[in-house]
Amino acid sequence: MTKHKAKPATHSLLAAAGFILLPLPASLQAQGNSPALEEVVVTGSHIRRPSQFDSPSPLSVVGREDMLDQGAATVVDVVKNLPENSGAEFQVDNLAQPLTSGTSNINLRNLGLGSTLVMINGQRQTLSAVAATDGSSFVDTNSLLPFIAIERMEILKDGAAATYGSDAVAGVVNFISRDNFDGFEIQANYQAAEHGDHSDAEFGAIWGGGNDSTHLMLAASYFDREAMYSADRDFTEGTALSSLGHPGTFLTSGGFVMDPGCGTVGGFPRDNGFCGFDYSPYFDLSPDEQRTQLFATARHDFSETVSGRLELAYNKTEVEHIASPSFPFLTFFPTVPEDNPGNLWGEDVSYFGRIQGAEAGPSVARNEYDTLRVAGNLEGQFANDWYWTAQGSYSEQEVFYDRPDTLQSRAVAALAGRGGPDNNQYWNPLAGADNDPAVIADMIGSTDMNGETSLLTFDAITSGELFELEAGTVMAAFGAHYRREELAHDWGEDYNNQEFLSLFGGPDYDAERDIYALFTEFSIPVTANLELQASARYEDYGDGVNSLDPKLGALWQPSDTLSFRGSVGTAFRAPSLFQTDATQASQANMYDPLTDSTVFRSAQTNGNPDLDPEQADVVNLGVTWENDTLELSLDYWYYDYEDLIVKQVPDAVVAQEVADTQAGLSGTPAQLAVTRDPASNLITLVQTDFINASSAETDGIDLSGQYRLDSGAGLFRFGTQWTWVNKYELRESGGSDTIDAVGSRNKLNFARSLPEWKGNISLDWALGAHSATAYLRYTDSYDDDNSGLEIDSHATVDLRYAYAFALGESEATLAVGAINVTDEEPPAVVDLLGYDTKVHDPRGRMLYLNLNYRL
After folding, report:
1. Residues 136-160: tens digit of each pLDDT
2. 116-120/123-124 β-pairing
3. In the chain, which residues fall in CATH 2.40.170.20?
4. Sign of the C-alpha dihedral, residues 598, 235, 367, 147?
5. Is the whole-model pTM more than 0.90?
6. What SS3 state is found at 472?
7. What percent of the chain has pLDDT over 90?
8. What is residue 22's predicted lDDT score, i.e. its pLDDT?
9. CATH number for the domain running over 7-25+36-240+279-324+362-407+443-575+612-644+693-854
């Protein structure tokens, strides 16, 4: 087992960052008294513009005050309420996403966790060192920067591959830090749920200062979360039932026989003849978590036209999450020898269950993340008023993942009397047996995984005035980009040897690649109020994987109050290193036609180096009308995806295996992919692959509005944001039927939960030192394709009141509020935990107190 290291790149970038902040030769500096840098770089463009609103692409901004008005204390609190974000993972789900506890992500348009590019101050961030259960790689938004250091979020809601390359198919989310902050500010937040002992405590501090040429900003935060357990909420009861429990079930020559203790120590008879186990009380709905974040920026003006910036960030997250007392035997059903003291049948029998039940209490797993980022840039103007930028970044995330599971070899040995630390003891599998704790401990191993991802980037960009037309100046930008991605997972020996009876296992892996890109962009004034934007990017991943993606946009402003925008382009997303090189073990419910039953079994997915890149056509058309008091905006968006990279659904593989067997075929790929227990013919393992699916086509509308009224009773602001999905038609293969994923949970295909409507309505009021905010959040009803039932619509109300006051010569604000004031439960789902973890929040009403103090 070798662990891939990327540490030397850190030293290289530190040296590079220091070098680019040194004074430049006079030949690169502007001559005379040229104006200082005043234009800004807008998310979605490399051409400097007077403001971020002069863009032909749909761009929404969530400012710091907007975040605080929502009662937000973390990035997740903001991102999960974005209407255009659908199917993301923002809370733990030990069954569907056990490896990613403590992370969060963004999924614009439900096009996949890896289809949204997440940046910090316009530069990329490394992917998380863990991948989602469906094989998606993503940027961990929990590890970016302290919440108190965020100035705003800029969300580009159309494809941006022509500007930023792969990973920007669905759009871009750019986190902008408070670089210009002056003074000292602290912020304390405490939030507690009414159910259980769940609470969040967050403390942040920021300092900024300097002189006319140099400015420093330092920020830090600490976040502490007390867990909410499934046992704290009634709707989880009885939603996680297993036929493999303790007490267990034995297969004798006469058939299946339940443990005689079934029904007395936590088990219960099931209709299928197995002793069942309810493991729903043993999960987190929100896990125990601690997170420390540090962030610093330094900006220096070397001259009127040359400035440099250095950025450092560090994040450490520790998560402890619980699961069932021990995991079921999924990949192997061991033999209980005739001479085992728990064998009541006088013959060798097979055991179906787990080594511990309710009496043992929950098992505990840990995730630890360390994330580092160093970024620097240098920018200025040539003598001809062209701008130039040179920038680089290095970021990495390391993860340690420790999860217990039963070892096959030690379980077999213990059943045969060779268990325990001295290899001379029995494990009696009968309920109530007096087993030595040392024997149980000897049968349990750990994943012991150390993983790492890293990203090194360099960009060189120049932009400026190209030539004059009658309607104005043609602007242009030209640039080159390089990045190096690395991924490595080093698992423990037991995992490598595929020893685990539930988690199975797999090999270590590491991979790396270099990506090169050239890009250009033009802003062309056609008339005084019509501008065209043309851009293109060529990106090369090596080994014949490359793409040239153009984009054409238009912005027409016939009056000061009305503007129309539109864009059309192609997008490209290369397979991730995880999808091409990793081996992923997971567990899933799957239907077995052979036994006419749904079983929970292990699946192993293998990386596929022959995957084709995803390709997409993207269209956006929008209009905005605004005056001093009212702003209305509407955008139509359309994506046509081909060759989507997805993980095969185990049900499909099993269905093909059964069909091939019934047709008298042998040795087919599906038959080789499904392993069955020879004694019972039950599935023990399914091998799946990452594949290119056929297509997905989706479109919809974004609506937003804001009305401002300034009266003697105060300043009122009414706002609303909605996303409506018209269609999401997908095909899993060239010959498969078309599935419309809109209004469906999509449990049986590769899409994620996708309600048709999602939106917010807000009302703000401010008068003097007082302010108040109310939010109505709505998620439409949708169908559960797994059960055939409807998942109800869901509406919650959030309230906040704030009072600003002087504290000596300083300013302070005290706010109180409630999330989900009416304590609405998440809509019921006939599945594990009883609700949809990718849509709804299970915590119910939460009350919070916020204190902000600024010197």
Report:
1. 999 999 999 999 999 999 999 998 9
2. antiparallel
3. 7-25+36-240+279-324+362-407+443-575+612-644+693-854
4. positive
5. yes
6. strand
7. 85
8. 35
9. 2.40.170.20
